[in-house]
Amino acid sequence: MAARPDPRRPVKLPAGVLPGDVLTVDTGTSWGNIAIRVGQLLKHRDWSWANHCIIAHHWTDGVFWGIEGRPGGVGWVDLTARDWRHVTTNAAQPKTEDQRARLCEWAEKTMLGRPYDWSAIERHALDALGVPDLWRDDWNGQGVPGQVVCSSVCALGYDFVGLARPLPTQGGRYVMPYDWNRFNGEWT
Q1: 83: which residues sit within 8 A by CB, 6+ positions away?
Q2: pTM of structure
Q3: What are the tens digits of pLDDT across the range 80-109?
Q4: What are the φ and ψ backbone dihedral angles of 116, each rounded to 5 degrees?
C-alpha cells in the first residue's frame, strides 16, 4: 500500500509518517488561518500554530498524497510539495495495517468531494465566544455527515476503524485542529 518516496524529491515531513496517520499543519497566515487560530485560542485559552488536519494516504511516483477537508470540499493534497512550517503527527499511535488500509479506502470512497461544513465553523466560533449550543451533534450513529471540515474528516475516519482520537466522548464534528495537535503530541 505504501510505496517508498522518490529519493529525487525531498520530503519535508516527520520521519515515520505512513498512510492513515493524521498530520496537523500550519498552512500560513491568511485571514482564514488566523481566524482558526484565534477561535481555538478563545475556546481553549491556549495558543496553537496548528490550523489544519490531513490524513496521510499513499505514495505515487514520489508524491505522498493526503486527503484534506477544505472550503472547496474534501480533496487530495500533495504532502511533499510544501515546506510545512510546523507538523505534528500521530505516527507513533499503534495502528494495524488493516486499520490503515480501511481508513484510507474509507476516506477516498466516502469523503472525497464532500462539501465543507460551514455550520461547524460557526459552532466553533460560538463556542469560542461562550454562546450556548444552538445545534445538536446529529451524526453519531446516523451515518456519514453531509458536510465536514478537515479535523472532522480525521475524527470520523478514526471512529470508523476503531482508533483512539481526540475528544472521544464528544461528537467528532466539533474536533478542532488544536485538539488533533494536542492528541498527536501524546504520541511523540
Answers
A1: 12
A2: 0.74
A3: 877 666 888 999 999 999 999 999 999 999
A4: -75, 145
